[in-house]
Amino acid sequence: MRARLTFTAEAAGRVFDRAHVTLVWRAVLVFLSSEPSVRGLAIAAMIAVALAASIVACLAQRGPPHPSAPHPGD
Prior knowledge:
65% helix, 2 helices
């Protein structure tokens, strides 16, 4: 049986935090750059970061349930 690649909830959270910072800086670069090739490269990098964050979200392990969430059967 193959082991499934997973990330802990903490690791996924760190990836999302870093992806958010990266996307913000890339967006600043897009708006400040007047060179079309730089804009295109920055947009391509933004797409790659967003896809990577989405993959991590799909592979992340679920964290413990929120304590105020209703439990089934209550």
